[in-house]
């Protein structure tokens, strides 16, 4: 009957049957799976369950919002409470009450007797009658003088389970009788040999009662109807909860002067991360908490919300910075806080995970600053959830695998090498799954290891790596300059197989770039396998999968692919994920974090997108011409995402440097020109801002300039930047004081961004992948940097030719260069022209999917200054709090 009724009501219903031998654990696991399935709105467990299974455990395991039977402890508990608010009322008791209400029975002050005290009918119906202001008596098998209680009943509800137990002479004339009993008695006239009857002797009771329900055909159909109603209510509630996103801001207590970043971070009590997740529509089972204030988010969110239209996408970039930075991360947080905490829009900040190298070096952390930052900032700046450690482990496993493979190839014959690579186990050899990838690449169509020819064995077993071509280096997350060049293999056990190599910082690893660009776990697996670590002596590329390490690297990084959720100072959500080095990689957070955030900030098909759409504010490393160019030509090309607005962060201080002001040196006092009004030098320096604006407009996306206001900036200086920005084609240039005021200080800026999002886009990329590698590098150098030409060294040209011949000539380009100039030369300020960009080397990131060209001398592992940041860091051993981070 339930299946038929569900079908008639267009409710999809599935019956899952279990054998009587099913264990309690198996049943609870299945219920948990159904609880986490958003396509399931109601779960009904047919009671009773076998004796070896706890009925309480089973009914309690059903999620409260799917407990359409209403038997869970929360629903029953709320029903029993005066003023309680159960999500669902048990179906049969609910049907009883509807029958009474539809029959016009006024229960207020009436004597209601409930015969039976089961948790299925008796007890819950007594709660409902009491809520209707009846005077309720519950009778059961131990009740004395039962007939006297029944004689006083104005309303009788019987669920005692005894056929035709209650006689008419026991009842008060005019009583209303609801018979819930379902009992069978022998009946020869029935085909089944039995007849369904209730608890009431219908013939005698119907002569006394004013109203009486028959059995069958009375309460039974109402039970099914109420079950369907509960399912519909559950589906409606589920939908409402999924589209309801409401961020509850944390209040700020602003202080003047503004305290240190760590002091401000510590002054705010963050929300529990599960509350942050719930506010933005992430379900509990989609969250993996790491402590109280950070968590990983399952990629299943993307599948669940795939139907949504994406929210608005904003990329924050900057002008060419000084060594002190211009507040790009601070601005990103300020915009997110303004939108989420002050303008009632769902807003995410999406940022990279900072490397511990710069955190303990000269730069410090990357949480933002002042009252616009990620909190807790110590957790953000240090280990977070261990993603960088996973990258380090994966990278170094591959490095060890390369050295080991070369060692064994150089010390064994073909047959011995093959025998150890594919050993016999219990008299049988088998290729491992990853080996079939190499067999396919070699064109060896054979699954039986014993049937390879001698030549095939040699091809399969020997990678024959040319050591001088190996580009894969070990990494660590420390600024250790003395590891830039090392010699490995000097121990006697390595039999003279030493070679020169070096270390990179962990965030410079191609594994990190792959984490940032992967669209899912499978994509990450394929990209890791495609990484080229060097070339054979025959000139063929050797990949991670050739070595057989792609699966192992994926295993080490499988949790790292899940974005990390944190919050800003005002409790708005932040995704912290991936952290590719901005010098030699894309310098942007992950594609997956962007896609998940855009769906969480997006709109349902029936919602007004302009009114309801939220915002995802991400950032690109360094200035627009570096980070922004890579963001568009590599990240957007890979992800298919296009920003609605480009924000360029500018400061009076940096523009004065570009106008001819004296150099800014970290740790040294600022020249007075940076603390006094000087509109002439400022206007001259705006040539740098104008160039970044014109570069951004090439991509056909609206541009808004964020003027990150310092306390020494004057109104006249702010006005100069506004004039120059708008003249260069920006939609607007808006000052913001979010460092000192949090989101409040970026409200006008955020309103300008909202307005710019409504502008038409004419998106286009800088270059096509169809041309030559040289033409793409020249397009970047000439159109973005302002160069007259690009010059390739002999080795760079040789590598370009080699990559092209091997099928890697159609990849996008990442140029590694200084961040302190539009050019390759850090001393060329403003917007230089007429120079030649020297490309000294070109390297391949086949897994990440780009070529990176090195302009001038770029270090891939920084060094520590004379007075590094770690000198300030200590721990209060009484409280465990970390001091000295900035």
From TrEMBL:
Residue ranges of every copy of the Tetrahydrofolate dehydrogenase/cyclohydrolase catalytic domain listed in the record: 1-69
Name assigned to this protein: C-1-tetrahydrofolate synthase, cytoplasmic
EC assignment: 1.5.1.5, 3.5.4.9, 6.3.4.3
Domain Tetrahydrofolate dehydrogenase/cyclohydrolase NAD(P)-binding as annotated: residue spans: 90-237
Entry's localization field: Cytoplasm
GO BP: any one term: folic acid biosynthetic process
Summary of subunit composition and partner proteins: Homodimer.
Pathways involved: One-carbon metabolism; tetrahydrofolate interconversion
Keywords, in A-Z order: ATP-binding, Cytoplasm, Hydrolase, Ligase, Multifunctional enzyme, NADP, Nucleotide-binding, One-carbon metabolism, Oxidoreductase, Purine biosynthesis
Molecular-function annotations in GO: ATP binding; formate-tetrahydrofolate ligase activity; methenyltetrahydrofolate cyclohydrolase activity; methylenetetrahydrofolate dehydrogenase (NADP+) activity
């Amino acid at each position: 009957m339930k299946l038929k009724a569900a079908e008639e009501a267009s409710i999809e219903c599935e019956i899952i049957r279990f054998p009587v031998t099913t264990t309690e654990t198996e049943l609870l696991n299945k219920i948990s799976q159904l609880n986490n399935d958003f396509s399931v709105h109601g779960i009904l467990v047919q009671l009773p369950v076998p004796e070896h299974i706890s009925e309480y455990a089973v009914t309690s395991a059903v999620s409260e919002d799917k407990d359409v039977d209403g038997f869970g402890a929360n629903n029953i508990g709320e029903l029993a409470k005066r003023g309680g608010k159960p999500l669902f009322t048990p179906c049969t008791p609910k049907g009883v009450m509807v029958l009474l209400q539809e029959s016009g029975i006024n229960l207020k002050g009436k004597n209601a007797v409930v015969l039976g005290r089961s948790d299925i009918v008796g007890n819950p119906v007594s709660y409902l009658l009491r809520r209707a202001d009846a005077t309720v008596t519950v009778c059961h098998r131990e009740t004395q003088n039962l007939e006297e209680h029944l004689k006083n009943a104005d309303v009788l509800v019987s669920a005692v389970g005894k056929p035709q137990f209650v006689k008419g002479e026991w009842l008060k004339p005019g009583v209303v009788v609801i018979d819930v009993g379902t009992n069978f008695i022998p009946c020869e006239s029935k085909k089944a040999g039995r007849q369904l009857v209730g608890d009431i002797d219908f013939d005698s009771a119907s002569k006394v009662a004013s109203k009486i329900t028959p059995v069958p055909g009375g309460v039974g159909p109402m039970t099914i109807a109420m079950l369907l109603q509960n399912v519909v209510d559950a589906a409606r509630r589920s939908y409402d909860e999924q589209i309801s996103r409401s961020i509850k801001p944390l209040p700020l207590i602003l202080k003047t002067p503004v305290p240190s970043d760590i002091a401000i971070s510590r002054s705010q009590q963050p929300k529990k991360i599960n509350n942050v997740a719930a506010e933005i529509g992430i379900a509990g089972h989609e969250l993996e908490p790491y402590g109280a204030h950070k968590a990983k988010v399952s990629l299943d969110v993307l599948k669940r919300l795939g139907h949504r239209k994406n929210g608005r996408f904003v990329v924050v970039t900057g002008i060419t910075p000084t060594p002190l930075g211009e507040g790009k991360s601070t601005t990103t947080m300020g915009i997110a806080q303004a939108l989420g905490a002050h303008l009632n829009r769902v807003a995410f900040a999406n940022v990279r995970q900072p490397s511990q190298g710069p955190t303990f070096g000269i730069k410090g952390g990357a949480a933002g600053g002042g009252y616009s930052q990620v909190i807790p900032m110590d957790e953000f700046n240090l280990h977070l959830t261990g993603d960088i450690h996973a990258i380090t482990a994966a990278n170094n496993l591959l490095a060890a695998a390369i050295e080991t493979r070369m060692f064994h190839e150089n010390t064994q014959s073909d047959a011995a090498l093959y025998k150890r690579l594919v050993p016999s186990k219990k008299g049988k050899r088998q290729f491992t799954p990853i080996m079939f990838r190499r067999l396919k690449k070699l064109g060896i169509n054979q699954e039986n290891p014993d049937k390879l020819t001698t030549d095939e064995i040699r091809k399969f077993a020997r990678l024959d790596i040319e050591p001088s071509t190996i580009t894969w280096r070990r990494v660590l997350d420390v600024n250790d300059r003395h590891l830039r060049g090392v010699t490995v293999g000097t121990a006697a056990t390595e039999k003279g197989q030493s070679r020169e190599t070096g270390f990179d910082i962990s965030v410079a690893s191609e594994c990190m770039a792959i984490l940032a660009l992967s669209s899912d776990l499978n994509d990450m697996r394929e990209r890791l396998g495609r990484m080229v670590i060097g070339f054979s002596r025959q000139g063929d590329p050797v990949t991670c999968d050739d070595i057989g390490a792609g699966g192992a690297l994926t295993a080490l990084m499988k949790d790292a692919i899940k974005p990390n959720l944190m919050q800003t100072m005002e409790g708005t959500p932040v995704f912290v994920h991936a952290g590719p080095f901005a010098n030699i990689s894309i310098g942007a957070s992950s594609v997956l974090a962007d896609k998940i955030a855009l769906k969480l900030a997006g709109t349902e098909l029936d919602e007004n997108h302009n009114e309801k759409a939220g915002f995802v504010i991400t950032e690109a490393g360094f200035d627009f011409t570096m980070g922004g160019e890579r963001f568009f030509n590599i990240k957007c090309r890979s992800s298919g995402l296009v920003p609605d607005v480009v924000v360029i962060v500018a400061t009076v201080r940096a523009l004065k440097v570009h106008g001819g002001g004296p150099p800014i040196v970290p740790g040294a006092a600022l020249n007075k020109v940076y603390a006094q009004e000087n509109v002439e030098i400022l206007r001259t320096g705006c040539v740098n801002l104008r160039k970044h604006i014109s570069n951004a407009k090439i991509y056909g996306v609206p541009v808004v300039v964020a003027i990150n206001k310092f306390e020494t900036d004057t109104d006249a200086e702010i006005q100069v930047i506004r004039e120059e920005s708008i003249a260069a084609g920006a939609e607007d240039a808006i000052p913001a004081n979010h460092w000192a005021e949090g989101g409040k200080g970026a409200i006008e800026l955020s309103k300008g961004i909202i307005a710019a999002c409504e502008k038409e886009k004419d998106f286009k990329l800088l270059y096509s992948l169809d041309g030559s590698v040289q033409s793409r590098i020249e397009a970047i150098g000439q159109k973005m940097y302002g160069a007259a030409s690009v010059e390739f060294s002999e080795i760079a040209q040789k590598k370009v030719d080699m990559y092209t011949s091997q099928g890697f000539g159609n990849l996008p380009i990442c140029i590694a260069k200084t961040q302190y100039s539009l050019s390759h030369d850090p001393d060329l300020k403003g917007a230089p022209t007429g120079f030649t960009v020297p490309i000294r080397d070109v390297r391949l990131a086949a897994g990440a999917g780009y070529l990176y060209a090195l302009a001038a001398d770029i270090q891939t592992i920084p060094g520590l200054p004379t007075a590094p940041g770690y000198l300030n860091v200590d721990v209060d051993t009484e409280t465990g709090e970390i001091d000295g981070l900035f």
